[in-house]
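Reopening this ticket.

The earlier resolution said the output was attached, but the attachment link was broken on my side. Pasting everything inline this time so it's all in one place.
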Amino acid sequence: MGFKKMAQITAALVKELREMTGAGMMDCKKALSEVDGNLDEAVDLLRTKGLSKAAKKSGRVAAEGLVAAISVGTKGALLEINSETDFVSRNEDFQEFVEEVAKIAADKDGVTDEILAANFPGTERNVEEQLTHNIATIGENMSFRRAETLSVSNGVVASYVHSALKPGLGKIGVLVALESTGDADALTALGKQIAMHVAAASPMFLGRDDVEQSVIDKERSFLVQQAEESGRPADIIEKMVDGRIRKYYEEICLLEQTFVIDNETKISKVVENAAKEMGADVKLTGFARYTLGEGIEKKEDDFAAEVAAAVQG
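Inline output:
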């Protein structure tokens, strides 16, 4: 009775599989042992196991992660990819993944389906498959949440990330689009300053014409009700409400807001002054702002119960 000779699983083979798949060292060694050292079969085996691991994690709330903001000439991209914990946002593999997907988002004009279907550089996987692969190898649920782009015909789309973990990656990301034939460096500097303002002031709309009438009607109704409680005459109430609506526009519209850097100049005037200095027309055509996890309902766990569950296994 003969014995089948087992293939030798060398450290070099394990290392090669790990580099190909991103799986852990012990998982790679075990997979190679199961398929008698066949590298291609080991890749397939890890991929299959990874998909099943990822499926188990997919129900967990992912509200941490990273926001990316990048500028590529006359185009900029904003992206949010979530993870379960803030710890993962400091993982180099995760950061590199978000950076690469941000570049793809810029190329695909922020269209989610096209981004997810695009080839992920250096692999035979698309972005969606790479995300699933990352879930399996990093060990947390992750999700591609949203992306968008801004572009101009001439000028710049400036990007800014507040408290960046590394260039272009953090928790608040902003894009600002400036249409102009003026000096690109001066436009970029102006755009970055305005983007910093957007990060701090969080405007809802670009200008008055961009505010939906329903938003103003709702605010006016609230202000009228509030003013009526003062018992003042109707004509006085109308003037009071008109004044407060003007103030409301200054709170929610970027062009109406007071520049946080000097705390006295309207953003519209900041742009106008910059145009005079450059000797070229400058128009602020759009902005976008993402805050990590905004609107995601985070699960509030009972820490004591969590510890007790861990102890009980």
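Reporter confirms the inline version is readable. The chain has eleven helices and seven strands. Confidence is low (pLDDT under 50) at residues 1-5, 51-58.
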